[in-house]
Amino acid sequence: MKNKKISGAEAVIHCLLNEGVDLVWGYPGGAIMPVYDEFYKFQDKLKHVLARHEQGAIHAAQGYARSSGRVGVAIATSGPGATNLVTGIADAQIDSTPVVCITGQVPSHLLGSDAFQETDIIGISMPVTKWNYQITKASEIPEIFAKAFYIAKSGRPGPVLIDITKDAQFELFEYDYKKCNGIRSYIPYPEVNDDSIDHAVKLINQAKKPLIVWGQGVILGNAEEEFKNFVEKSGIPAAWTILGLSALPTSHELNVGMVGMHGNYGPNILTNKCDLLIAVGMRFDDRVTGDPSKYASQAKVIHLEIDPAEVDKNIKVDVPVIGNCKESLQMITNKIDKRSHKKWISKFDDLMKIEFDKVIKSDLSPNKKGLTMGESIIAINEFTNGDAIIVTDVGQHQMVACRYANFIKSKSNITSGGLGTMGFALPAAMGAKMGALEREVVAVIGDGGYQMTIQELGTIFQLQIPVKIVILNNDFLGMVRQWQQLFFDKRYASTEMINPDFVTIAKGYYIDSERVKNRKDLKPAVERMIKSKKPYVLEVCVEKEDNVFPMIPSGASVSDIRLD
Amino acid sequence: MEKRKNYTVSVYTENNVGLLHRISAIFLKRHINIESFTTSESEIKNVYRFIIVVKMTKSGVERVIKQIEKQVEVIKAFYHRDDETIFQESALYKMKSSSLFEERHIQNIIKDSNARIVTVNTEFFVIEKTGFREDTEKLYKDLAPFGLLQFTRSGRIAVSKEKMGISEILNTFKNQK
Ligand SMILES: Cc1ncc(C[n+]2csc(CCOP(=O)(O)OP(=O)(O)O)c2C)c(N)n1
Predict the structure, then answer these.
(1) pTM value > 0.90
(2) Which of A73, A211, A245, B95 is close enough to A413 for a disulfide, judged by CB 3.0 to 4.6 Å?
């Protein structure tokens, strides 16, 4: 292609194609129109999906990235288009999701003049991007795109934003693409230090009551196999953070459940009883640790982590093992003794029995009249055989889904963990489906969050993206109501909602839909939904004032977890 | 409570437009007040050096250093206590020319403080003093009674006693390629 001049806008398409992109999510507008004109010309090679809001586009790109393991791409115009991306960018940053955002910008001679739809998206997005760059000359496009994709997906992944002035999109230049495979100031994969491995191995071999807590690092590092081998050889019980979920099958005998605020009783209590905590690809978020000064203070801590900035950030670590856990896990597994920890594991079983009696039984086989979120999730498990990608929004339903959904394959739990972005699930689910067409994708959403990005039903309808959407409707902003009940004397300030008829709304988008209110109707409805080959909205009317337990009150220690 | 101390943070970066913003945002996000901030090209062409003075706890500054190093275009970041660096600040003092001739004492102050007159004209003259904060502050106090038209002090510039080894880092990258 050398010597032939092309426009900056056309170059954008070639860059995307050179990076293997075949799907882009976006929304057009003045400052990005030259690129959209090229989308038109290249539509047989590169699919552009029109979202109904830029937030929808970026969450879709995130969902796509997380189900496929590839880089998601979102594109928007300048000004409001760009600012509408910001929530998703911040979400991708805190959840380490590889996305490349492209925004149009006013022509370079107008920069700083408060031109129509000018915003400083570089300045705005700087603290929430892994890297960003403003292109003002077409000749910069190939190098910057190559760099952007490299940065987004390498090391600890994250969002990158490229802002392109309109004149750079029109400008003609000689296109030449070279992939980026290194930046001298950037070390994406720190080398694993042998001493740290030996030190970790020694502690693991000596430990009597060790506990593994794993996070999304296992998934992002494609280290599921290495992780499983490590768990099995060491015989150590393993608990997950919300973003680590699905890296090890739910049914694995050493999987002891979730840690954190609404995690399982056993792993939370025993975090403060173990003698060795092995953290793998997780970052000790405060929702996981509770009061950090009362977190595993009796234990030695080993931290396998690719990002040195996470080490000693929240929890003081005895043995940091910096590097890609795909490598370090294997190195450790090779050297440790094969062991089993039967007696120690029986403690988890004992606590699970308590949790079952006090919480799980009434969640899953309730004797009250109204449906529960828990039994809805179990019904989904039944008809998907636990093999679906479950995309959740934020709130009670999210915690319940993570607690009760079954997973067989990795990359199957997609949720907004770090930012807790309501409105994430619906667009992320359509993205997840496009990123894994062979998989069943079920979105589980609260009635509050659903209405934050409900407009994406339009995208789902237009493209006939066969996602299954379950609204767990309690007519409340449930999680906030729960806090009001527990910590604000039931003063339900602005959390009760009079909702529209969700079935009618779905039908307005020509999407099949039904509502269930009674227990006997739940399973048949879920079955119909899963059997359908088309998009489907199922509204499940659940108990209005149910609470999610167990719960670690915020600021309390993990071992102060409450069962009611 | 861990005690807060003065730390000189040195950051070596690629010459990149946005970095100033990125680095200062790391402090802003943690509600840390920056005492001074300077930037210039370093001993290596196209490699820039930021010198930031902050009052923080040791564990705080360690965490911030890692966040800074995490930025794609940062080559390396360091932190040092005051006794681990050689540092200076410059100050400029602008005064009415008449006072230079009418108040003989001013000339003694200038001489005793090892300050330097940069320029003199009929209306004003400018004194420059480089040294520690106490030195420029003392001169300020001495001159203030005679009427300062303008006063400004630069941020800290500093070199470390230990080796930084930036060229080595850049060479390792070259050799890997
Ligand atoms: C964008 C956004 N705004 C506000 C919140 C605070 N918040 C957290 S959970 C929640 C309630 C969610 O209600 P709903 O979507 O109905 O789900 P439920 O908790 O009832 O399952 C709110 C308001 C948030 N996480 N995100």
Answers:
(1) yes
(2) A245
